[in-house]
């Protein structure tokens, strides 16, 4: 099945090179939720995107807060830390920690799971691949930054970054008929 | 992320919206091919490989292509830089997809295909170049944000740059096996409490064994008003004899 994917005539959409990310686009929402972030910090939880991880130094860097409020925190972990594998660079994590000698130590690490908006359903790889292969009429949208899209995306996918989506509502790319299927994807749960 | 976009589409009145939550990484993990944009093929810092025969490549190819016929791919695998984004094409979909599978299997992480192969390229009005084929791969990795160039690092490590110091953030255990003669050694997890040992008026080039910890350390230092950059390279030290490999 995989061998026949290129049968589909590819769309030759040039990337618009407006940089915004899968992980960075929630600036406004995060600003509005500022009090909540402070509250969270008191409960000894860091939520954010993992920007660095070293197994040798047993340390994770996590970026918490957004925009001007953003800061990177180094959290140590040890053999008792649960779920260390859930901390992967570029993905969102929730790190419970405790202070030891003035330094944060991770106790439990969980992946931050994406929530689907109401009325939106998930699609899995196999079903998506089958839909692309069969030439089913639908619109596939890559929400990642244009540079990532340009370097390699799914067959038939077009690029609308989240910022662009906010600005244009997908005009010119999303189908005119609003009852047609539209599938969005990005760089995985972030 | 994609869920925000899906929400926006829903709000804009689209009734049939789905999200492929696993996303592109999962697509690649499940061994499906990905396709580069034509602009990336034309101008990206890539290694572009023409998998067709040398004769076909000579008769007309995408500009900047290197000719490696599919049958020779295995023999030439060592010549292809592991860190480079690789874009493949052929005139045969199966061959291109075999190429991407083979390279991924060999550990190449950034491999994509030209949309519609050479036929798709031509059809979309892409430029074609003719003449003797190119077989040498010339690719130079561009420095990422906050990275120090190997040449600058080496100069500082050998004590020839008075304006820069080398900071080694490996663990004490690792450092006990050897370190650069001129390097200051502070393990990453002690860095926060030992900032006063470092100068603010000099450039600080941070290294570890690969670059992951150095990157974290440099971010931490820059946050505190230092002028730090990090080295992405494999560093191995025995005594004061260190080897650095890009």
TrEMBL record, chain A:
Residue stretches making up the Rhodanese domain: 134-188
Residues annotated as signal peptide: 1-21
Pfam families named among the record's database cross-references: Rhodanese
UniProt KW Signal keyword: yes
SUPFAM superfamilies named in the record: Rhodanese/Cell cycle control phosphatase (SSF52821)
UniProt keyword annotations, A-Z: Signal
Database matches in PROSITE patterns: PROKAR_LIPOPROTEIN (PS51257), RHODANESE_3 (PS50206)
Protein name listed in UniProt: Rhodanese-like domain-containing protein
Native species: Candidatus Desulfatifera sulfidica
From TrEMBL, chain B:
Protein name, entry field: Rhodanese
Native organism: Candidatus Desulfatifera sulfidica
Lineage: Bacteria, Pseudomonadati, Thermodesulfobacteriota, Desulfobulbia, Desulfobulbales
Taxonomic superkingdom: Bacteria
SMART domains reported in the protein's UniProt record: RHOD (SM00450)
Domain Rhodanese: 42-130, 160-243
């Amino acid at each position: 099945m995989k061998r026949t994917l290129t049968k589909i005539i590819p769309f030759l959409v040039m990337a618009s090179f407006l940089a915004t990310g899968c992980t960075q686009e929630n600036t406004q929402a995060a600003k509005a939720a500022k009090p909540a972030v402070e509250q969270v910090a008191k409960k000894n939880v860091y939520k954010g995107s993992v920007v660095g991880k070293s197994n040798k130094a047993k340390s994770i860097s996590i970026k918490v807060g957004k925009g001007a409020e953003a800061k990177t925190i180094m959290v140590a972990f040890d053999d008792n830390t649960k779920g260390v594998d859930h901390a992967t660079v570029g993905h969102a994590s929730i790190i419970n920690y405790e202070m030891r000698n003035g330094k944060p130590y991770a106790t439990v690490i969980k992946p931050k799971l994406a929530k689907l908006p109401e009325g939106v359903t998930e699609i899995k790889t196999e079903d998506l691949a089958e839909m692309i292969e069969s030439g089913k009429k639908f619109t596939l949208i890559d929400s990642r930054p244009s540079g990532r899209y340009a370097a390699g995306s799914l067959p038939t996918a077009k690029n609308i970054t989240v910022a662009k989506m906010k600005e244009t509502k997908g005009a010119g790319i999303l189908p005119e008929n609003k009852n047609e299927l539209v599938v969005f994807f990005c760089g995985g749960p972030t | 992320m994609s869920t925000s976009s899906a929400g926006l589409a829903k709000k804009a009145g689209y009734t049939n919206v789905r999200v492929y939550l696993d996303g592109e990484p999962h697509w690649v993990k499940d061994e499906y091919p990905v396709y580069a944009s034509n602009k990336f093929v034309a101008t990206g810092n890539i290694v572009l490989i023409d998998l067709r025969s040398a004769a076909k490549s000579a008769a007309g190819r995408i500009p900047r292509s290197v000719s490696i016929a599919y049958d020779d791919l295995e023999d030439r695998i060592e010549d292809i830089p592991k860190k480079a984004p690789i874009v493949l094409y052929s005139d045969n979909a199966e061959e291109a997809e075999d190429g991407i599978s083979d390279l991924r299997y060999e550990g190449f992480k950034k491999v994509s295909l030209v949309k519609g192969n050479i036929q798709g390229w031509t059809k979309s009005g892409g430029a074609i170049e003719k003449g003797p084929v190119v077989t040498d791969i010339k690719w130079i990795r561009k420095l990422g944000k906050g990275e120090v160039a190997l040449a600058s690092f080496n100069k500082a490590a050998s004590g020839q740059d008075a304006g820069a110091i080398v900071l080694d953030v490996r663990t004490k255990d690792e450092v006990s096996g050897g370190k650069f003669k001129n390097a200051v050694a502070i393990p990453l997890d002690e860095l926060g409490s030992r900032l006063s040992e470092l100068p603010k008026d000099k450039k600080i080039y941070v290294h570890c064994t690969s670059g992951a910890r150095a990157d974290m350390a440099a971010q931490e230092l820059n946050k505190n008003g230092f002028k730090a950059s990090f080295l992405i390279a494999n560093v191995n030290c025995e005594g004061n004899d260190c080897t650095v490999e890009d």
